[in-house]
Design a protein that fits this description.
- The complex is a heterodimer of chains A (124) and B (397).
- Helix content of chain A is 65%, strand content 0%.
- With 124 residues, chain A is an all-alpha fold.
- The longest helix of chain A is centred in the middle third of the chain and has 31 residues, at 31-61.
């Protein structure tokens, strides 16, 4: 794609990718792709959830021409705060394992300790 | 409709999109907030525990500086998840604005042209302008197309994308008009230099003029000019200022060599510009600033603190931007002796200093202000410690 199109050209197609090699983060092949897909799915889940939320609020308030109403609906501050709380809660569930591991680091809850307990329980 | 000081104030040329686009944008912002508040703190125990121990076992000593901390952390799965999430959030942020922008671009471009036509302030772009390599080689902070890609004569796409993107990236901490940095420096000047009343003000690397406009508000009689190397940002800045009712000129110029006459300005400022330049450009920008100032004039650069002001672990956290967010000069800039650069450029050595300008948006919120007290530098916050680091230098009167 050219960076300088003639003046009468149709609307340019905006770039979706930034110039600059994307770093890899995980050693396991495909993991970077999977993590991105998961988060995009997570985002779409939130999109749907918030859309339903919008529908519910509108239906309660008015109940007419929902599609049109959704486009003109502007959530108030309590609704925005409620959504924010829900999103943070959702992320908390999504990062369950990561947070579990952080907690293990803080409390020194190791695999070694786990096996010691197995041994200990079996023997006592 | 503006709901509170952490919501962006819509204006004539701001791309926002439809209901679902807005939720995608909000999600990217929420995700960033979650990473900073909930994932980032976990890096400390991971580093202090298993990552340090493993490094010490392999190298015979614990990690000593940010480079060794990086070596210790990169193989750790907790860090990998944190860094990957940060990158994905950044990609989702831009994607959530690009889609609606693509749809709204023809209408926004027409509006921008009309707004600029109505403005009395100068707008100058140059089709032969040479964009410096430090801007064109990588798309900085992973913004697709970068600052300077111009598709057509009136193209404003990069500016429009940046305006919405900055709001999302800053999680609203740039204030309703994305003007927190400029406003914070203005507040700083009013408090600390009460006698100083600049008539000619220049904002270097102004992008969309979001930090430039507060100077016109604070000093309404002054001539205020913003310059940047990116034509689509300059065009957007000009239209955006007109849409907000401000009389500010925007010119496509390079801060290293602006083309203005000696002694043209009383005040020269920049906001998160220096870390997006280069090792060779920075001294030139300081020298050009000295040349352009009238005697007694001030140069003020607002950015994040240099590395010497924080410990190695905080340095490591900040330096992640260098490796994972297309910020090639982010880390290197923070190792430069900026005080010496200013002195070498000719500034009065007694006048050159770092200081902190408290974030204006936090001062607006009394509740947040109470929490701000007694805070120390915490890496990963949008503006660490609730203030912007400013480098101040004065030309001899």
């Amino acid at each position: 794609m050219s960076d300088s199109l003639p003046e009468d050209s149709p609307v340019p197609e905006l770039k979706r990718h930034a110039k600059g090699k994307r770093p890899g983060f995980y050693e396991t092949g495909g993991m970077d792709e999977a993590m991105s897909m998961i988060m995009v799915l997570a985002s779409e889940f939130c999109v749907l959830r918030d859309r339903v939320d919008t529908i519910e609020h509108i239906a309660r308030i008015k109940g007419v021409d929902l599609a049109k109403e959704i486009e003109s609906f502007e959530p108030n501050l309590p609704i925005l705060e409620e959504r924010e709380k829900r999103r943070q809660g959702f992320l908390e569930r999504l990062y369950y394992v990561t947070q579990k591991k952080a907690a293990e680091q803080s409390s020194n809850d190791t695999e070694e300790r786990y096996h010691e307990v197995l041994k200990d329980i079996a023997e006592t | 409709m503006q709901l509170n000081i952490f919501q962006q104030q819509p204006h004539a040329v701001l791309p926002i999109g439809d209901h679902d686009d807005r939720v995608r944008q909000e999600f990217s912002k929420s995700f960033r907030q979650y990473i900073q508040n909930e994932l980032l703190p976990g890096l400390t125990p991971v580093f202090e525990g298993r990552a340090s121990r493993k490094f010490e076992n392999e190298n015979g000593h614990p990690p000593a500086d940010r480079h060794e901390i990086r070596k210790a952390m990169v193989p750790d799965i907790y860090f990998q998840t944190y860094a990957s999430a940060t990158r994905i959030a950044q990609e989702m942020l831009w994607e959530s604005v690009i889609k609606p922008l693509q749809k709204e671009l023809p209408e926004l471009t027409d509006k921008a042209v009309a707004l600029s036509d109505q403005s009395n302030s100068p707008l100058e772009t140059d089709s032969d302008f040479s964009v410096p390599r430090y801007i064109s080689e990588l798309d900085i902070h992973c913004m697709p197309g970068g600052y300077a890609t111009s598709h057509a004569e009136h193209d404003i796409a990069a500016g429009a994308l940046y305006d919405r993107g900055v709001y999302l990236y800053s999680m609203g901490f740039m204030g309703p008009d994305n003007d927190d940095m400029g406003q914070s420096v203005c507040n700083y000047i009013k408090r600390n230099l009460p006698e100083f009343s600049p008539q000619y003000i220049l904002d270097l690397g102004c992008t969309i003029g979001h930090s430039t406009l507060p100077y016109k508000k604070e000093f309404p009689d002054a001539d205020v000019i913003g310059i940047d190397v990116a034509a689509p940002c300059i065009r957007y800045a000009h239209a955006r200022a007109a849409a907000m009712g401000h009389d500010v000129g925007f010119l496509q110029r390079n801060a290293e060599n602006t083309g203005f006459e000696d002694g043209s300005f009383d005040l020269i400022v920049s906001h998160i510009l220096l870390h997006e330049t280069s090792g060779k450009a920075m001294p030139k920008i300081f020298e050009e600033g000295y040349r352009l100032l009238k005697p007694g004039g001030y140069m003020i650069h607002a950015d994040l603190p240099p590395f010497e002001k924080m410990g190695p672990f905080m340095q490591f956290i900040l330096d992640n931007e260098t490796y994972y967010n297309n910020e090639p000069f982010w880390g290197a800039m923070r190792t430069m002796d900026q005080i010496q650069l200013a002195i070498d450029a000719g500034f009065d050595p007694d006048s050159v200093r770092f200081d902190t300008a408290p974030m204006a948006v936090m001062e607006l919120s009394a509740e947040d202000q109470a929490e701000l007290e007694d805070r120390e530098f915490v890496a990963g916050e949008y503006a660490p410690g609730g203030g912007w680091e400013v480098l101040i230098a004065r030309k001899d009167p």
